[in-house]
Structures are given as structure tokens and as C-alpha cells.
Here is the input.
Amino acid sequence: MLEILRNIVQEVNAAGDLEEALQIIVRRVRAALNTQVCSVYLRDPANGRYVFRATQGLNPELVGVASLAASDGLVGLVAERGEPVNLEEAENHPRFRFMPGIGEEHYHAFLGVPIIHQRGVLGVLVVQQTERRRFDESDEAFLVTLSAQLAGVIAHAQVTGVLVTQSLAGAAPAKVTGVPGAPGVAIGTVVVISPGADLYAVQPRAAQDKRKEVRAFREALQAVQKDIQQVAENLGAELSPEDHALFDVYISILDDSTIGAEVVKLIKAGQWAQGALSQVMIQHIRHFERMEHSYLKERAVDVRDLGTRVLAYLQAANQEPRVYPDQTILVGEELTATSLGEIPREKLVGLISVRGSSNSHVAILARAMGVPTVMGAINLPYAKLQDREVIIDGYNGTVHLNPLPEIKQRFQQVVDEDKALSRDLESLRDEPCVTLDGHRMPLWVNTGLMADVARSLEQGAEGVGLYRTEVPFLLRDRFPSEEEQRQIYREQLEAFAPRSVTMRTLDIGGDKALPYFPIEEENPFLGWRGIRVTLDHPEIFLAQVRAMLKANEGLGNLRIMLPMVCNTAEVDEALELIRRSHSELRQDGLKGELPPIGVMVEVPAAVYQARALARRVDFLSVGSNDLTQYLLAVDRNNARVAHLYHSFHPAVLQALAYVATASQSEGVPIGICGELAGDPGGAVLLLAMGYDVLSMNAISLPRVKKALRNLRRSEARSLLKEVMQLDCALQVNARLEQFLTQHGMEKFIHSPVE
Here is the structure.
């Protein structure tokens, strides 16, 4: 059964559209269970009805026509309960509803299972039989397993279908969930940045000059054949005659009389060369993928590789200057800083990346630039979005396709309010962050690029609470030298002088991998990362520390911070190395005292050792992003569980309060440099807890300043007492929104638009 299950899933994944996928499901399931009927009902998001979308065994003429209300019939019962319904005599059940013309009056046995994706019921998978019998447990388990695996595929196909088969004006609305990359809302036109030579990313297009397209294709074909021949010759001495013959097969596949002829035929029919190649190769790939024999199935990889090689030559010969509309939303499978830099800044309003996280280099850059961004939108059929209007909600990490006019109007209102708020907040740039009862709260920024500096200073930043030193490392193809690092660090220190700059030592591992220093682990977040890497490689750590100390000479505004600390031994070892480096540099003539050294509290162990850590260092700083992830066991960059990540979870708030109390008892300053600090509601709670410094993205700074200047510290403390008695994050969030509204700050609230 497992092999059958795997084959069905593979076949459905290879389907060209939703209708084909559904037909594969009903056909293969009926055969697998040896039953007489298999049907799929899908929920219509517009009216909530369950539409009869595919069948094997019932009346095919009613497919797409017949439907049931959400509370109707056995299909409605399965959807309502969210679990299987298995009946020996379906017609005797009180929820049974006869649908005229569908042809199910002869069938008695009924088994229906829900198709659930991200907690929502997409539809119901049904099998039926004439005999009065209950389907056995293995049949039920098979359908449950299958529906669970197919749910994501169907959800993706639905969105794709919305984009492909319908005009934009009449298409159904769809929402794709990712993770917030940079806050804000953007409405604009999509420009797709396709990866080089991706057969699946090629858009259909009419050929302007058929002869030219045919000639270009044949030249690309010959170039690939020549490449393969060259490879075969290079490996001739190392291969057996049987292995060598494989290259002859590859060359023959590309012959003008086989696949080549099919492509030429499509070009002559009016398709451009890249589109024709893509269509033909994908057809052949799917043909091989559907084969039962494992050896033949693997040939799909070879066909894909050959097609990709030909496409690469076509694209190289067909480079056209890219046109960017005024309101451009850049979309790609995995956006890079390079692709971001190619577009004029005045035309860029938003970014969507199918892969990547909020810690990706492009997300960091987007936050610095104030460009609304959604990352990790894994279900987005990005290749089909070119020239379409979409809406990005960077606050909540969603992308809206074909939005209803009223939804678009509500988002436009948010855009207008954000612009008005930004203008209003500009007047606060040079004002200190002081509460109504006179408490001074320093507001610092998180940086990683020189591009951050100007924006940070424009927003009134009073220092840097986190400088991500790994960013310069990410931008190179090798470790930067000590002198290269010194120059980079000096620029940052000079730009902010005399304001403090807190430089975090190299923090790689987890979701931050250097291309030239790969760390492959089954569980990277619990593996070799942060201080663990640099202590295991003291040559890297010492070079970085020396570069920081040299850069600080004559300025004296450096602070050094150690990431991912989980015990005091790591701190003791790091302190010894830092002091040794400083002593050696002093002997060489370096002027300047040892800078303040601090520890990041971002793993649960550090929370409960906060006092012991505080006794050893000059300051503590909470990394609330990672701390929240570790406390809740949630990867916030995983769209499946991102909804469980919440900075206002009672456990997180208790941990933050504990660290603040511990640091205060030891007389050591305590700061925070996670996203919570940049949330106006979060800043209110941190103020009440006694945090000395809040560090955030530059774009968030004016909002936090506005919020804290609008209240008394005593009010914040009263709110904190109340909030700490609540049992769940939703209650905390609701109370914070109420508090902000009472203080005239409802514009800082960004609830999801449905």
C-alpha cells in the first residue's frame, strides 16, 4: 500500500492543473481500494458550498454543477466533524441527502474523509460501494493518509488554477501565507525574477519571428550536443563501454527527429522557443515520473537536465532589458540582494520570496530600506504571477491574489495611514524618548549593512544594540581578512560615534550558513552555531576580536556581545580570549581600554543562569526572536507552524521579566534586540519590566518613540501586572490592543485583513 500511496502522490504532484490532479486521485483511489465509486468535493471559498469536482463511477455531467451546502448531507458531516465517516448503509443516516441525477442511489457503503490544509477543510474525498458493508480500518487509514499528503498539493493547485484558468477581473480571491519579512503593506504589479534555466518558470509567449526562434533553438540544441560529446571524451578513459553509451542516448534524445522535432513543431505553430522547449520537456518528464519501474522513473532526472541545458543557451542568447513598472513588487523563488539592487529604488514597493526566512540577507536589507516583504511563501505559484496585481501584507506575512474590491480598498487605507503616520512621526526624530512621567528610555537600532546607517540616524537612533557581523561574511566567497574586517567595523563605529555600537561576534549556523563554510546538520538550531562555532575555531574568533579592537582605537564606542551562550564556561573562555587579544594589541601600541563585553540571552538555559552570567560581564541583551523560538519549540520561518510563534506568549513574558529582575539584582544593564522591542505594545511591557535599552529595526523606532512618549511608566507597570495574570498570547494581544487604543495609538495595530 505504501508504494501505491507514493505513486499516487508523485503522479498528482506532476499534474498540470487542478482538474488533472483530481482526475488522477479519483481514478487511482478507486483502483487501489477496488471499489466502484470515488469522488472529490471541494469547498468553494466564495460561498462555502462543497462542489462536486471529480468522480469515477457517478455522473460526470454533474461535475462542477452539483454542490452541497456546508451543513448538508454526509459530505457536510465529514467537513463539519473534520474526521472520517464510515457507514454500512448511508441512506439510513439522518444526515443523508439524495442528490438527483448524480447517480448514487445504487450505492450503500460510504466512506468520506476530510481534506485538511493548515487547519481548514479544503474538501472531502469519498468512496462508495453497492454492497452493504463497512469499509475496513486499513481502507480508512489509507484514505486518511492520502488526503493528508494531498492537501498541500490541492491547495497549491487551487491557487495556481485561480491564476491560470481565469481572467484577473473574474478570478476568485486567494490568500497565500508566508512569514513576515519586513513590515508594511504594498499594492503593486509583479515582476518575476526567474532562476536561470528553470523549465517550470518559462512563461508562454507568441513567437515574433518563427524562423529566428527555430534557428535559435537548433543552435542551442547543437551546443548542448557538443557539450555532451566533450564530456564523454573527457571521461572516456574512466567509463565502461556501457556507461559511455549513455552519452549517445542523451545526444539522440535531443535529435531533431525526436524531442527536437516536437519543439520545432510548436514553434512553427506560434510558440516562442523557450516556451515550446519547456512544454515538450515537462511533458516527457511527467511521462517518466509516472512510470512504475524505478529505473525508468529515474530517467526523468536526465530529461530535466538536458532540457535545462538547452534552455540555458536559449536564455543567454535572448537577454532582454527588464522593464519595471512604477509600483513593482519583486517576486522570486529565492530573492538575493543582487536582484534587489537591479531595480530603481523609486519603483520598488514590495518583495515576495518563496524561500528564505526573516533572517535572510534580502529580508534584513528590506527592513533597512522600509520595503514591505513576505518570505517563505511556499505555496505561491510565483512563475505565473508576472504582470499581475497583488497585495503584500508584511505585517502578517500574507500575499493576496485577485482581492475583492472591498479588500483592496481596506489595504489601500492601511497604505495611506502608514504614509500619514510616517510624516507625523518625522517631527519626533530629534526628540528624546521620555514617558509622560519623565522616564528616559534609550532607543537603539539593529544593523548589518552600511545601508542601515543613514536610515537609522534619520530615524533618531541613539546607538546600535546589535550589529550583525555575519553580514559582511555572507557577502564574500571566503572569510574576510582581519584588515578587511577592521575597515568594515571602523565604518560602522565612525558613522555612529560617539553613540555606542554593540557588535555581535560571528553568529553562523542554524538558518545562517556561509557558502564557503557549510554546516550540514539534521537539527541545525540545536547544533553547531553561534559561540560554539567560534570557540571551536579560535583563529576565526581571535581575528574578529582583534579587528574590532583595532577599529575602536580613538573612538571608544565599541561594545562586544557573545551570541548563543548556554553556560558560564563559554563566557569564561571567550573572555579569556578577548582579554588576551587586547593585552597583545596593547603591547603592540594599541591605545584604548577594553570595551564593555556582554552576553546575549537567547536560549532557555541562559534565562535561568542570568545572574551567574551578569556577574561575569558588563551587560546582558535578550535576543527575543531566538528565545521565543526555543521556548515555544517553534520555527517562525516555517509557514506550517509560524502561527504558533508569539512574542506575547505568557512563557516568553515570564522569561523576559525573570532576566530583567536577575540583571537588576546584579546591577548590570539589561537590553533587548529582538523584534518585540520594535512592537509598540511589546515596548510598553519591556518599559514596565525595567529594560534599560530597546534595540529594533530603524523603521520601527519612530512608532515605539511615539508610543512611549504617550504614556506614564506607572500605567505601563499597571498593565504589566494585569497582563502577567493572563493565560494565553491572544488574551495578552487583545489587552495590549485595547491599551494602545485607549491611548490614541490604534494606528499601530495591524490585524490580518480577511
In short: The radius of gyration is 30 Å.
